[in-house]
Amino acid sequence: MVVAVHDIAQRRHSILRNYPLLGHLRFALESLRPELQQYFIERNFDGRPFDRDTRSIVYERAKGTAAEEPFGTELDLYRTGSEYLTPSMSPRAVPAEPPRVRIGGPDCTRPYDMALLNVSAMSFGSLSANAVLALNTGARLGGFAQDTGEGGLSDYHLRPGGDLVWEIGTGYFGCRTEDGGFDEQIFAEKAAHEHVKCVSLKISQGAKPGIGGVLPGVKVNAEIAQVRGVTQGQTVVSPPFHRVYTSPRELVRFLARMRELAGGKPVGFKLCVGSRREFLAVCKAMLAEDTTPDFIVVDGAEGGTGAAPLEFADHVGLPLGEGLMTVHNALIGAGLRDRIRIGASGKIATGSDLVKRLLQGADYTNAARAMMFAIGCIQAQRCHTNTCPVGVATQDERRGRAVDVGDKSQRVDRYQRATVKSALQIMAAMGVDDPRGLHPHMLLQRVDPHTVRSYAELHEWLEPGQLLASAPTSWATDWQAADPDRFTR
Ligand SMILES: Cc1cc2nc3c(=O)[nH]c(=O)nc-3n(C[C@H](O)[C@H](O)[C@H](O)COP(=O)(O)O)c2cc1C
Question: How far apart are the C-alpha atoms of 213 and 39, rounded to whole Å?
Answer without folding.
Answer: 35
